[in-house]
Design goal:
Elements (H helix, E strand, L loop, with lengths): L21 E5 L10 E5 L6 E3 H21 L4 H5 L2
Antiparallel strand pairs: 1-2, 2-3
């Protein structure tokens, strides 16, 4: 972790090409000296993806799902505590 950014999906996601674990790294410096977090395949760097937009997408999906669960009427099993 660098700059206080945790890797939400690092070690959780697998590369669709080689099945190696996807880890967080940092991009190469741009002309302005800026770097950004990326997720990349630990096996052979088959894939690379900017981390911040992907993390934001996943968090939004989790929040949306939680809101759906909260809005859904309770089933009999949930009411009984089963």
């Amino acid at each position: 972790m660098e700059n206080g950014k945790a890797a939400l999906l690092s070690g959780v996601v697998r590369c669709p090409k080689c099945q190696a674990v996807v880890t967080q790294r940092w991009s190469k410096k741009k002309a302005a000296g800026e770097r950004y977090r990326i997720y990349t395949c630990s096996g052979g760097r088959c894939i690379t993806c900017p981390a911040d937009p992907l993390d934001s997408f996943v968090v939004r999906k989790v929040i949306d799902r939680a809101e759906e669960w909260n809005a859904a009427p309770a089933t009999d099993a949930v009411r009984r505590g089963a």
